[in-house]
Amino acid sequence: MRFRSVCKLWRELIDDPHLSTMHTRKDTVLLHHHAGTISAFTPRTSDDASMNLRAMFKSPEIKRCKVKAVGDGLLCLRHEGFKPQKDIWYIANPITKQVLKLPKPPTECECPYGCAYGIGLDRSSATPKVVRVFFPSYESCFSYTLGAEVYDLRERCWRRPRTSKVSIFPPRVGKGAILSEERAICAKGGIHWFKETDLAGQGFDPKIVSFDLGKEEFSLLRPPKFKNPGSETGLFEVRGSLAIANHSLARRVEVWVLESSSSSKWTKRYKIEFAAFPDNVKVCVTPRRVRCVGEIDGEMVLVNFWGMHCFAFYNPKQRRSSRGFDFEHVPHVSLSHIFAFTPTLISLHL
Question: How far is residue 128's CA from residue 25's CA, in Å, rounded to a whole number?
Answer without folding.
Answer: 18
